[in-house]
UniProtKB/TrEMBL annotation:
Core subunit of the mitochondrial membrane respiratory chain NADH dehydrogenase (Complex I) which catalyzes electron transfer from NADH through the respiratory chain, using ubiquinone as an electron acceptor. Part of the enzyme membrane arm which is embedded in the lipid bilayer and involved in proton translocation. It is an enzyme of class 7 (translocase). This is NADH-ubiquinone oxidoreductase chain 4L. One of its GO terms (molecular function) is oxidoreductase activity, acting on NAD(P)H. It comes from the Eukaryota. It comes from Tylochromis polylepis. It is found in: Mitochondrion inner membrane; Mitochondrion membrane. It is a multi-pass membrane protein. It catalyses: a ubiquinone + NADH + 5 H(+)(in) = a ubiquinol + NAD(+) + 4 H(+)(out). The keyword Membrane applies. Pfam families: Oxidored_q2. Its EC number is 7.1.1.2.
Length: 98
């Protein structure tokens, strides 16, 4: 495993661990998701550069577009929950109460 692959794999796993263990605020969960998507984007971009093929050149841009859509939906949910509940703490959200 090259050092670049190790760096991107460890970045992704650190984002996943942060998402799994530090679930107190919605904003921290969104930041962990963005870190995971950023590491996937950079890894996919380097993979397409190493292949020297134009067949996979659209894949990083497609991933970046989906990442932007995910970020905008997450921020919209963050604003909606902070307006209705007054906080972004995940413990204050109850799925049984509408």
């Amino acid at each position: 495993m090259t050092p670049a692959h190790f760096a991107f794999s460890s970045t992704f796993l650190l984002g996943l661990a942060g998402l799994a263990f530090h679930r107190t605020h919605l904003l921290s969960a969104l930041l962990c998701l963005e870190g995971m998507m950023l590491s996937l984007f950079i890894a996919l971009s380097l993979w397409t550069l190493q292949l020297n093929s134009t067949n996979f050149s659209a894949a990083p841009m497609l991933l970046l577009a989906f990442s932007a859509c995910e970020a905008s939906a997450g921020l919209a949910l963050l604003v909606a929950t902070s307006r209705t509940h007054g906080t972004d703490r995940l413990q204050s959200l109850n799925l049984l109460q509408c």
